[in-house]
Fold this sequence. Notes:
Elements: H1 5-15, E1 20-25, E2 30-34, H2 40-47, E3 59-65, E4 87-95, E5 98-104, H3 108-120, H4 122-128
Antiparallel strand pairs: 1-2, 3-5, 4-5
Helix pairs in contact: 3-4
Amino acid sequence: MAHGFLKKIFEVFDAHETAIDMITTSEIAISLTIDDTKNLDAILKNLKAYGEITVETEHTIICVVGEGLIEDKNTAKLFEVLQEIPVRMISYGGSINNVSLLVATENKVATLRALHSKLFTRENHSAIA
């Protein structure tokens, strides 16, 4: 059922006028995020026809934005500060100017503080730029 599978999944979200914010795929799984959950029950009912569904809540998307961020070889250093924070999903490459991270909402403040420290404190600024 690989051919056309993603199309069918997207059609379910389209039918319920629900935008997908982040998505990652593999041969056997799709992980995605939505912001608007008002139609979630109907979406889940439709998706069950295509496989097993797991819903996780209380997650936050954090975006790091900067001109040419993806092309900068030092961007990988951002992930050094996240060693203690479980990152659920990474979107790296949808745009050359942004990296998006999905973390549990309980880790949002710690993630933001760690990134801020790496990006905006004087002693670390030259390590990224």
